[in-house]
Every structure is written in C-alpha cells, then in structure tokens.
Write a structure and sequence with these properties.
Structural class: alpha+beta
Number of domains: 1
Strand order of the largest sheet: 1-10-3-8
Order of helices and strands: HEEEEEEEEHEEH
Radius of gyration: 18 Å
CATH architecture: Sandwich
C-alpha cells in the first residue's frame, strides 16, 4: 500500500512517536479495528546492530506468534485482538532489491505443516518465546512484492484471535534470495513494527485455553517441554492507542 512518511529513522524519539502512530493508523485503516497500538519495532540491515543482537535477516519460514503470546499482551477483557506487522524500507532513495520478504498464503498451509519451536528473541537480555516453523509442502503458495518503493508499506497478519484455524491465524514469512537480484545490489535496509489491534467482537472466555492447548507440551522424544514464554522486554507501551476520529 502507498504509505509515505518523512522521518529520520535514526531519531529514536521520532520513531516511537510519529512512526508508531503512523503504523497504528495504517493498521486501523486496513482492518477497521476499534483501536491500535504499536508495541515494538526492529531494524534489519543484514548484520547485528549490536554484538549478538538483532538486525540480521530472518531466512527461515516462520510465524513469530503462537497462542502463548496471549499471556503477555495487555488486551481489554473479552475483546478479540490481532497483531500485525508493518514492514517497509528505511532507505529513502532506493527500492528494496536484495533479500525481499516472502509470505505464504495461509489458505495453502495445513496445521500439520506447523512445528511449535522454542526460541529466543535477540533482545537485551534475550527473551524466551515459542514460535512456529513451517515444513515445506508443494501445495504451499508464496508471494512477494518486488521492488518495494520507500513510500510503500506491507501489512500482514502475525496473529488473529478471531480465527479458529491455526494455519490461517498467522502468516508464515521469510526473507529469501531473489535470483533476479543484481550482484551489486545494496543490502536491504528495512524496519518492521508490530501493532496490536483490538476488535469489536466479543471473545468467549474459554477460547484462549482452547488455542493454547494446540501447542504440544512435550518434545518428539517424549521429554516434557517447560520452556516459558516470557514478556517481551522491548514490547512497551510507547505508542498511544489510536482510535477512529
């Protein structure tokens, strides 16, 4: 979608104020939600932005959020919610060429293709999470947007509590090597913001536990899994709630 913004991504205060509000407004316009709040952002430059930290490209098909995330999000009681990524270039002069982002059509993913995985987010300190990885199947259909311009943004669903089907509730995505990329293309410089959206629909009280029961409680070899899902240290409340005018 066209979403121009004139901002210095090196100015932290501008990012967590103007850019956060901008992303929340984009999600509201795209989803029709009651309110939206940008919780966090990450820059991708193809290398760690600090030793051992994030900044590299995620090059395995994955979905960042599982039903366990519901234990660490502040959502109004009895309201359905979603989490969305707003993904875009931070280079004001160039379209994205290298390592574009591909997304798998949720309608072509079956629950049997999904693997629940222990993981760590590269925060300081690191944060333990549970995410999904994807087993390849020839029925899966992937899409990407070549040559995304600096004034464009991509919005995709990370999680939607209204959707019963686990495979449709999330969007599997990954950076990939586009074989048409020229050899001297610059590294992709991008930012992704995670936005929580609250919907009008009532959320039945038993729904959360039913979703969380989808996650296995043991490893394939039978060992019990006691990996905790921790509150994200970088998921703050910096962005204010945006509501329709």
């Amino acid at each position: 979608m066209d979403a121009p913004i004139d901002i210095d991504y090196g100015d932290h205060d501008s990012v967590v104020s103007r850019f956060y509000d901008h992303c929340a407004e984009l999600v509201m316009a795209a989803t029709g939600c009651l309110s939206a709040r940008t919780m966090q952002h990450e820059f991708r430059v193809g290398a760690p932005v600090w030793p051992g930290g994030a900044g590299t490209y995620a090059e395995k098909a994955h979905a960042d959020l599982t039903p366990y995330v519901e234990d660490v999000l502040d959502i109004p009681d009895r309201r359905h919610f979603g989490v969305y990524n707003v993904w875009r270039s931070t280079d004001p002069l160039r379209a994205i060429e290298s390592k574009p982002l591909a997304m798998c059509d949720p309608a072509t993913v079956s629950p049997g293709d999904m693997i629940s995985s222990d993981g760590r987010r590269l925060t300081e300190p690191s944060t333990r999470v549970v995410l999904y990885h994807l087993v390849h199947d020839t029925a899966q259909c992937w899409h990407f947007f070549p040559g995304m311009e600096p004034g464009e943004a991509l919005i995709f669903r990370q999680y939607d509590s209204r959707i019963e089907d686990p495979a449709s509730r999330v969007t599997f995505h990954t950076a990939f090597n586009d074989p048409t990329t020229r050899d001297d293309a610059p590294r992709r410089r991008s930012v992704e913001a995670r936005v929580a959206a609250v919907f009008a629909e009532d959320d039945p009280p038993e729904r959360k536990s039913r979703y969380q029961a989808e996650i296995p409680t043991s490893y394939p070899d039978g060992r019990p899994s006691s990996w905790p899902y921790e509150r994200m240290v970088d998921w703050g409340a910096s962005g204010k709630h945006c509501r329709p005018a």
